[in-house]
Write a sequence for this structure.
């Protein structure tokens, strides 16, 4: 079943342009100049019910604008969208009962009050009865490990604790779909892991679909099955995360430590040597061109191996590569 | 029923939230004391210069109690337009619009929640000051009779301020509009001078405007309560509330399509 269907979605913002300095300001008062910014340009995609979909892109790529159109907050300039069978900007209130949203950069919990007050309020807003709200809060506080946090004023919580409460609050009304806009922004490694685990659990146990925007490739790797990469309001890549890895993660980094000193002129054909030390070597090769077997054979022939690490490049690099490719194609097109 | 309890809960949480910093709440309300002191000095001189105990039907005591209630209404009302404008500027409006409630009813519930304690404290400090300066009000029952009119005044203030706030969907910063509104309310609402002291022609104009229904009406009803005045004030308020809320709903429908959410 499809939960989100977006067809040729378009959002154009008019932004005022002003020349430098005072004279520019005065001129723009009498003769304002506007330029159109295409935040979202002809975007089409689908998301299945219960899917974990990553929606990533650099700053200003149009991710948040898309999310705001999917929740009905913004009206699009063109195109069609159906979210759980609703047209978001026409049926905003009806749709709100079925979806949850978290904007990582802005709090939705009442800042001066304990989180439990916001949870109870949301229970009323989503028209749950009091018993159901209590049961749900108990369940979520266990799932998000926030039993000890609920009665502390939100302003006293750490960012990680607050984000756990934020995400949990968006799940109070058992939405079929949650839209998470940068939920891990500013969090440390442990807090990120916490949030990811809880989101994954809710997806598995309740089948809630997750559309996640993030700058953090780690979120994508840990959570998403499929990824859409956008830039300049357009899709530049769309595939399974596993395919993305297979296609782009062909470069391998190898670090070897030997028991004895190795030759200074250590080299292997088709392999880039990054660093040679007395007892170790660091190298990089493309597994699509040079076979892993032959590289390993050369490495072991060079001496007794004490330790070896083979790693993939970070996903950030892969994504950066995809942006670069898209940019080059764009330039060629022009 | 569920819809009502939704807005009632929003009202309640805002009410609790307004108590988060009691020191600030009390400190802000104390401002009414110097205002009342200044009004007392000004009007004492005016009445003695005029050499009259009663001007346009109001004694010095009436005038000061009138100004106390006018100030209570004005200082108690929440800065809805500014709040709405801020939420557009910083993008937090995204969280107001993604919940299953009506945007305007949500704003109304929070506005009322923010008003109550502020108004009660203002009335308390202001009333105490005036009481000490000129004695008890001539008609203590006016307190009770004026309550519905004070609530109506806030509804009216809300309609106008929300309209100014909605203009933030297009222009983002609304401080100029709120400034103009405040000055109009000062002059045509009878904030500094009861409208009865104006020349006849200006009284007619001012009393026909919504500002008078939002300040002068309830304040005058408070000092000279009567059934006739009650009906008069309430019906005029009701007409303005109907007209302005209708316009507000239309402005909202149009404004929402223009909204640009900043950030992210």
């Amino acid at each position: 079943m499809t939960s989100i269907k977006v067809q040729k979605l378009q959002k154009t913002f008019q932004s005022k342009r002003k020349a430098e300095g005072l004279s520019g300001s005065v001129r723009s008062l009498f003769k304002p100049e506007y330029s159109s910014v295409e935040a979202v340009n002809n975007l089409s995609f689908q998301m299945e019910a219960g899917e974990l979909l990553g929606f990533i892109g650099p700053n200003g790529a149009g991710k948040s604008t898309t999310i705001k159109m999917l929740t009905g907050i913004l009206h699009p300039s063109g195109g069609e969208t159906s979210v759980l069978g609703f047209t978001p900007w026409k049926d905003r209130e009806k749709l709100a009962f079925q979806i949850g949203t978290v904007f990582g950069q802005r709090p939705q919990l009442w800042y001066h009050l304990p989180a439990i007050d916001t949870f109870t309020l949301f229970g009323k807003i989503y028209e749950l009865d009091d018993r159901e709200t209590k049961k749900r809060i108990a369940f979520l506080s266990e799932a998000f490990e926030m039993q000890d946090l609920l009665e502390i004023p939100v302003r006293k919580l750490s960012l990680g604790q607050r984000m756990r409460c934020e995400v949990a609050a968006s799940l109070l009304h058992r939405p079929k779909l949650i839209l998470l806009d940068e939920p891990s922004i500013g969090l440390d490694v442990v807090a990120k892991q916490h949030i990811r685990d809880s989101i994954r659990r809710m997806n598995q146990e309740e089948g809630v679909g997750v559309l996640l925007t993030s700058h953090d490739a780690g979120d994508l790797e840990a959570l998403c099955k499929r990824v859409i990469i956008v830039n300049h309001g357009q899709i530049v890549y769309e595939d399974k995360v596993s395919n993305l890895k297979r296609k782009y993660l062909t470069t391998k980094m190898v670090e070897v430590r030997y028991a004895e000193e190795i030759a200074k002129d250590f080299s292997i054909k088709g392999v880039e040597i990054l660093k040679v030390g007395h007892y170790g070597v660091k190298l990089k090769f493309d597994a699509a061109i040079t076979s892993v077997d032959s590289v390993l054979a050369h490495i072991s022939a060079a001496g007794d191996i004490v330790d070896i690490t083979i790693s993939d490049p970070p996903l950030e690099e892969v994504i950066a590569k995809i942006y670069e490719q898209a940019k080059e194609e764009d330039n060629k097109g022009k | 029923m569920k819809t009502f309890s939704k807005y009632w809960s929003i009202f309640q949480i805002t009410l609790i939230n307004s108590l988060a910093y009691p020191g600030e709440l009390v400190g802000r309300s104390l401002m009414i004391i110097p205002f009342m002191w200044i009004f007392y000095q000004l009007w004492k001189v005016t009445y003695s210069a005029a050499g009259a105990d009663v001007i346009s039907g109001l004694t010095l005591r009436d005038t000061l109690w009138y100004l106390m209630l006018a100030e209570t209404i004005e200082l108690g009302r929440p800065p809805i337009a500014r709040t709405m404008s801020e939420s557009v500027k910083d993008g937090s409006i995204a969280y107001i619009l993604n919940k299953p409630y009506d945007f305007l009813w949500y704003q109304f519930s929070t506005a009322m929640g923010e008003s109550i304690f502020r108004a009660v404290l203002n009335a308390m400090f202001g009333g105490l000051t005036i009481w000490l300066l000129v004695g008890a009000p001539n008609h203590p029952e006016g307190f009770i009779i004026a309550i519905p009119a004070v609530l109506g005044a806030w509804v009216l203030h809300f309609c106008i301020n929300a309209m100014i706030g909605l203009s933030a969907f297009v222009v983002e910063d609304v401080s100029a509009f709120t400034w103009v509104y405040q000055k109009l309310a000062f002059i045509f609402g009878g904030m500094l001078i009861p409208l009865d002291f104006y020349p006849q022609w200006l009284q007619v104009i001012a009393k026909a405007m919504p500002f008078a229904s939002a300040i002068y009406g309830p304040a005058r009803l408070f000092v000279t309560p009567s059934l006739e005045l009650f009906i008069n004030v309430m019906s005029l308020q009701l007409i303005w509330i109907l007209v302005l809320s209708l316009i507000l709903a239309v402005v909202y429908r149009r404004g929402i399509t223009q909204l640009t959410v900043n950030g992210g």
Remarks:
- Residues 240 and 288 of chain A are 20 Å apart (CA to CA).
- Chain A touches chain B through 34 residues (CB under 8 Å).
- The mean pLDDT of chain A is 87.
- The radius of gyration of chain A is 25 Å.
